[in-house]
Input
Amino acid sequence: MEHNKRILSGMRSTNPKLHIGNYEGALRNWVDLQEQGYEMYCMIADWHALTTMFEDSSVIGRNCLEVAKDYVSAGIDPGKSAVFVQSNVKEHAELHLLFSMTTPLGWLERVPTYKEKQADIGGTEREPYGLLGYPVLQTADILLYRPYGVPVGRDQAPHLEIGNDIGTRFNRLFSTDLFQPYKYMIPEDENRAKVPGLDMRKMSKSYDNCIYLSDSADETAAKVKSAFTTPTKIKLSDPGIPEGCAVCQYLKLYSPNWESQWQEDRDGVRGCMQNKRELIEILNEYLRPIREKRASISDDDIRDILHHGAERARVVASATMEKVRSAMGLLP
Ligand code: AMP
Output
């Protein structure tokens, strides 16, 4: 059977800037899929941002505009792909509510990222109900579009699995085949599926170890200069361990000569300063077109893009909701 060509993906608007981990792990794949002719729905998940930012919600709207600018700067073409904000398509809330009635609590309590986040928050008196329901809302986001695939970084794999389980359970409960399993599209290149941060932990806003797409060339250079390298490599002639060095990891991602650079680093014939200088040049050249495009996009342009994107998303989302209500026997 010929599959549909819809793809859903999204990022939370917890931060106004996307980092190169978001780009390599997800956004770059979206652009490739768009160019291959897939029908892309690129969401900005503002409700999801609330699960951890409910006390600081005033910045979430502004963040949405900035994240949308990053999408478009990185190559998402609003003429081809729908760029929209989750809360502008209310069907996401309706499907979330219906799935929250059909999803067993035990499934949600077992999600590994829930346990981690729960520990961070410290106590059920502070823990919002929405944190446990996060994968249910994410499933609603996805299944509303009944997509062929969902392109994400490695860290999202457990959420995607539970989403297919929720869809399959819905089909069984209401004797329908509405929700077909979607594919997880994780970059095959492991370096891109999980990009390390400047300190070699996972690149993440919460660790303050990111290079952002919208950083200036000077900011990028300063960050690379401070990045973690082999601690025992003090002099140029000391042997490096490229596997544990953030600068070498980025060379592997971005430099066509990374293999010889790694070998020289290991052999003690190349120093960290040279690695950093070369990386700064390559990385700034790589990010230059994204930065230039970003500078040309106004807030009004982005508001317009989001308005039209939500209209397009609503067409698919409302058609799915009609089928969902009908399968469940709810009045139209
Ligand atoms: P989030 O910031 O959790 O909304 O993530 C948005 C997207 O970026 C998801 O598809 C993540 O899997 C991906 N992502 C986030 N951090 C990284 C990273 N360090 N390496 C690769 N992909 C990432």
Notes: The longest strand covers residues 6-12. Residues 11-12, 21-22, 24-26, 152-153, 155-156, 193-195, 202-204 surround adenosine monophosphate (CB under 6 Å).
